[in-house]
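WARN retry 2 of 3 for item q-0093 after timeout on previous attempt; input resubmitted unchanged.
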Amino acid sequence: MKALKILSILTLITCFTTQAEAQLLKKLGKAAERAAERTLEKKVEEKTSNETDKAFDTVFNNNKGKKKRKTKKKKKDIISLPQETGNNPVQTGPNETLTELSVYSKFDFVPGDKILMTDDFSLDHMGDFPAKWNTNGTGELVTIDNEKWFKLAGKSTYIPDLPSALPEDYTIEFDMLTVVDKKTSSQAKLEIWLEDNNMFDTPKNMAKVEIPLCLFISVGFIVENKVEGKRVIRNSVEKDIREILLQKNHVSIAVNGKRFRLWVNENKVVDVPRLLTDNISSFKLHPRDVRDGIDKVFINNVKIAKGGVDLRNQLLENGKFSTTGILFNSGSDQIKPESSGVLKQIAEALVQDKDLKLNIIGHTDADGNDNTNLMLSEQRAIAVKNALNSQFNVDNSRLQTEGKGETQPVDKNNTTEGKANNRRVEFVKI
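OK item q-0093 returned
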């Protein structure tokens, strides 16, 4: 009996032990399973993390590449504008000046000799609308490479303040900078209007030329006019300026009676003998189809001047003439290339009259030091002499030079227009 009890107890112990071992093994199995799962999860996480890192690296590197390409493209489109040199005379490399003048060797634009309006926006505050202009829309002054530019807005018309109605003969000049989308066929254009009113009224008499700003296709220059409200001329002049549109360009316009001519840099792109009508009194700019945030149009160095007729006849008939059309970099004796038209006419007068000899006299405005201005005027006269010799083969023995500085003003020195008229070069027959 006792033995039977002992056997029963041993059996129970064995069963308990087996169940405990089984439960223990089961628990160990689950723990191992969980450990295996965690190991697998960890490996998956590590792999996922690695793949994610690679993906991020790829995206980052691609973005870096895109940013590089975008920056490179943007840098290509941004133009480095010329820097001001201050009030002190600066000697410049003659080769640079001669190269620029050579490029403009066929440029026959001659600016007017009496400045009616000029504006480089130097007296206006950044972000403001310039004081010498009127508009029915908006616009503001911005800085590009440390230079002020007037940013024009689409659907706006801009009218400069003039002391009187436009004369029969006059010239208009301005620098233009544009940023236009290359990938789409933009309809953007800068319209030049010459009209019979200086407000925003619909004109009965007008002439218009559209400068195309499209980079995708060549659309040409549109010329149009109206006489007493009826269109007489509407045509497209096939000139392609797409290669230079993203650069800083100089626009020159000459009006002589009914004749209208327009140059972009040294190239004449429009010449219509009877585009203008009677009663034209105002000049206006109108950017059309300019898309905000995509297309941008900027202007600077605006100058409107009376005259622009044959300077050779003035020199040969009167024995002298004075011009504001020979331009120099600020505080420098370096001649700007757009001066080539005036220099060419002087050279032609010297070729026509073999006995003609000239005294070249430089004049400045009253800004800055008197002695500095005197020295600068002398240097500029010498620069003109050198240009006539090197570019047009005029013998130096036929040319003399002199500087008067600010001592002989022809206009007031308290306005930008007056100062511009005083900054001149005079040619006197010897």
